[in-house]
Design a protein that fits this description.
GO biological process, one term: lipid metabolic process
CATH superfamily of one domain: Phosphatidylinositol (PI) phosphodiesterase
Number of helices: 11
Radius of gyration: 23 Å
CATH class of one domain: Alpha Beta
Distance between the termini: 63 Å
GO molecular function: phosphoric diester hydrolase activity
Keywords: Signal
Largest sheet: 6 strands, mixed
Number of strands: 16
CATH topology of one domain: TIM Barrel
Protein name: GP-PDE domain-containing protein
Helix content: 25-40%
């Protein structure tokens, strides 16, 4: 990085810090001023002006329609290929932020896995949501006070509903492990950079090392990300106060809009799209039973995708089911069968697979890695089938005779 870039990054960081402080002080008066007179607008513009010279984004060829930022009329059509980000991985199928949760998410073909990035005392990056290890592990204390080896020695499945189950013990995933997985399957990371991280530029450098800058997005406004990787995409977490013209200006720097679905309207989505930005709010804020409805509402107002706790449900709702394969395994007394993504080999747990032979049948439910043991030698030569569901296509094979 050149010396002028360092100075620009320092000015941008100062502007962002001032902006954050200003917002914290001004939250109580939100909505009291006319949008054009809101002092926060100028604060935002100053911060954006400091960040913009650091970024390198494709030229936006969208023709702005400012009138639609006030009255959108027919909502925009979101991306034809729905953008799906799995929040902390497939966190209903395996412990959150563990490598297994990310494997299960990528089995469903999601575009991104959301990773809560923390930094250990010795400068390594790991996946953990909380600032302490207390809630999800058998350890205690701030993660910033622990070394990488100390963090990796903890059991990341030491909480309900995982304690005592098939996933215990689990290990807190390193950022390198998740990047390697994403690289292998052709996915990306949504990096939610937490307060323990003091070297955000190094996070971006690490993502760049794995060749995943284009596929990934950063939930951060730290200019050191742009200084390290000018092509990085940052997420802007929408509030409800920003007028359409400011959303459009923000979209020139922050190419992804996130946060709560109830903070979006067809007008705000149109303003973001006119800056060639994408919109992918949460689908999970209204609770697990409402995720599909939230996804459908997001798409109805023009969103390009969502962040979800239940990728299988959203993949099904989006009509983007993935191909499956049944792999026969010969380990163990009677062998087993695994239901996996046909393209990347990652397993689907919790699916029903049927054995059939000579008029008899038996149903197996897949578990860890999408595998199930075959119950006894009398099923040799049996047909094995998965009927398919909304998220995973059907498949069939036969056990060895």
């Amino acid at each position: 990085m050149t010396f002028p870039s360092v100075r620009r990054a320092a000015r941008a960081l100062a502007a962002v810090a001032a902006l954050t402080a200003g917002l914290a002080a001004g939250t109580a008066t939100a909505g009291t001023a006319h949008a054009a007179d809101d002092p926060r607008i100028e604060q935002y513009r100053q911060a954006l002006a400091a960040l913009k010279p650091l970024t390198r984004q494709p030229v936006c060829d969208q023709v702005p329609e400012p009138e639609r930022w006030e009255h959108a009329g027919t909502p925009d059509q979101g991306s034809a290929d729905v953008l799906i980000s799995a929040h902390r991985g497939a966190n209903t199928l395996a412990p959150e932020n563990t490598l297994k949760s990310y494997e299960y998410a990528f089995a469903y073909g999601v575009d991104l896995v959301e990773v809560d990035v923390q930094q250990t005392r010795d400068g390594r990056f790991v996946a953990l949501h909380d600032s302490t290890v207390d809630r999800t592990t058998d350890g205690t204390g701030d993660i910033a006070d622990l070394t990488f080896d100390e963090v990796r020695a903890l059991n990341a499945a030491d909480y309900a509903p995982w304690k005592g189950g098939a996933y215990e013990p689990a290990q807190i995933a390193s950022l390198e492990e998740i990047l390697a997985l994403a690289k292998r399957v052709g996915g990306g990371l949504e990096l939610d950079i937490k307060g323990s991280v003091t070297e955000e530029g190094k996070v971006a450098e690490l993502v760049g090392k794995y060749g995943l800058i284009e596929e990934s997005i950063f939930n951060s406004a730290d200019p050191r990300i742009f200084a390290a990787e000018p092509g990085a995409r940052l997420i802007y977490n929408r509030d409800t106060w920003e007028p359409g013209f400011l959303i459009n200006e923000i979209g020139a720097v922050f190419k992804v809009f996130g946060s709560r679905l109830d903070e979006y309207t067809p007008e705000s989505v149109a303003a973001a799209h006119d800056a060639c930005a994408v919109v992918m709010p949460h689908a999970y804020d209204a609770g697990p039973d409402q995720e599909v409805a939230q996804f459908q509402h997001a798409r109805a107002i023009g969103a390009d995708g969502v962040q979800t706790n239940q990728p299988a449900l959203i993949v099904a709702a989006a009509g983007e089911a993935v191909d499956s394969a049944l792999d026969v395994r010969h380990e163990g007394p009677t062998g087993g069968v695994c239901l996996v993504n046909a393209g990347n080999g990652l397993g689907f747990p919790g699916k029903t697979v049927r054995l059939a032979k000579n008029g008899r049948s038996a149903d197996l439910v897949t578990g860890y890695d999408g595998c199930a043991d075959v119950p006894g030698v009398n099923w040799r030569g049996a047909s094995v089938s998965f009927a398919g569901d909304g998220a995973v296509h059907a498949s069939r094979t036969r056990l060895a005779g």
